[in-house]
Design a protein that fits this description.
The protein is an alpha+beta fold and 410 residues long. The chain is 44% helix and 16% strand. The termini are far apart.
């Protein structure tokens, strides 16, 4: 008949409690349990905590758990005897059952939640938002196609069908290209976790198209500067000054609208002159930036007693700067894309330029107007672009434009 013993093998506190299973002369195996106790509270003869120690509620619960362990082990042994190989490994597996490998979902929409959980601590909240936006887009695509997208089905045919769907519901080609790149990222992440992917996955290419890059020319910026206060409300004056600051600092709206005079310090340049610098952490990249402050920005700050204009929300800023540009007669017919609220989709056609103005225009205007005047590497540092090709695409420079710039040196 099988016998089960509980014992300690150490005098150190806390000591691991071992379980030993014997059955005649044929079986004598032992394994660590997940339980510990102070040896001074252990009754070796009784193979349980001492009566004195049982007054402690935690030790009393331990005693109950050990009794349950012995009973369960005896039942499992009786079931396994003559059916399974009962050895030391069998006992270890009973005491500490091997963890079942977690199976990751193979449906694309479901896996996006898994991807988010993996990446939540490593990426910005804006990236999580983008992932969820794409998830909802894919759910609508599945409803449209009356199908379920499995990760193993993401191939070149899916890419073409998905592009057609996105165009039909009003997505811009470059937005669709970005979404396809995200989908490839989800699939590659799934592949690294053992989920089956299609052999064409790496062959899927998301092409970015050259778009009409809307920016303010230097003469248009001057027109905005020259707007007199009597033509603008206080709110528009405030927004106008922020717009000018963006045109002379080249930063994203998420960064420059947070500027505060406490971020400014003065340093000596090589000529020994004290120059103002502003230091801040970019919201999108979490990168610490230190950039010089343009003299035009210093002039604007003088109006506010050395500070920046008062804070304004991104949405209100977007609304106000359109009105500012309209007041500055920036009405040149310009080809672009704008959301039509009546049709509930984006419409591509010619608009008056002020209608296409949005919060990123200052950054693009800074980069475009200073291209060829300031070394590209310096401009890229200020705008935050990591590659020259990305920078040139951002300001809309083609190979022909670059070739024509080079003619100045021949």
């Amino acid at each position: 008949m099988a016998s089960i013993y509980l014992l300690l093998q150490s005098k150190k506190n806390p000591a691991v409690i071992y379980v030993r299973l014997r059955d005649g002369r044929t079986l004598d195996i032992k394994a660590k349990t997940n339980y510990h106790i102070d040896p001074s509270n252990w009754d070796e003869a009784e193979q349980r905590p001492t009566k004195k120690a049982l007054k402690d509620i935690d030790i009393a619960n331990l005693d109950t758990d050990l009794t349950t362990l012995k009973n369960d082990l005896l039942k499992e042994y009786n079931r396994s005897k003559g059916v399974k190989i009962v050895d030391a490994q069998w006992l270890k597996n009973f005491v500490n059952p091997p963890q079942q490998e977690k199976k990751h979902p193979d449906k694309l929409v479901d896996y996006i939640d898994t991807f988010i959980e993996f990446k939540r601590r490593d990426v910005k909240n804006t990236t999580i938002v983008k992932c969820n936006v794409i998830k909802h887009l894919l759910q609508r695509y599945q409803e449209h196609t009356k199908s379920i997208l499995y990760i193993r089905d993401i191939d070149t045919k899916f890419k073409m069908d998905f592009e057609k769907y996105c165009i039909s519901v009003g997505y811009a080609p470059n937005t669709t290209a970005r979404n396809i790149r995200f989908i490839k990222t989800f699939c590659r992440h799934a592949k690294s976790n053992g989920v089956e992917t299609h052999h064409q996955l790496d062959s899927i290419k998301a092409k970015y198209y050259k778009v009409d890059n809307i920016y303010l020319t230097e003469s248009e910026i001057e027109s905005i500067e020259n707007l007199t206060s009597d033509k603008l409300t206080d709110g528009l004056v405030n927004a106008r000054d922020w717009l000018l600051i963006s045109c002379f600092c080249g930063q994203r709206v998420s960064d420059f609208l947070r500027f505060d005079k406490s971020m400014i310090r003065y340093e000596k340049n090589k000529a020994g002159l004290m120059k103002p610098l502003i230091e801040f952490t970019q919201v999108k990249t979490d990168k610490i930036m230190t950039i010089p402050i343009h003299s035009k920005i210093i002039e604007i700050m003088k109006k506010y007693e050395g500070n920046f204009p008062r804070k304004i929300s991104d949405q209100k800023y977007n609304e106000h700067i359109k009105k500012v540009c309209k007041k500055a007669d920036i009405t040149e017919p310009t080809h672009g894309v704008k959301f039509n609220h009546e049709l509930k989709c984006k419409v591509e056609k010619d608009y008056q330029k002020w209608e296409l103005v949005s919060s990123h225009i200052g950054r693009r205007s800074f980069a475009t107007n200073n291209y060829g005047k300031i070394p590209t590497s310096f401009l890229m540092y200020i705008t935050g672009h990591t590659t020259e090709s990305m920078f040139l695409t951002y300001i809309g420079k083609s190979n022909k434009d670059i070739a024509m710039e080079l003619t100045n040196y021949f």
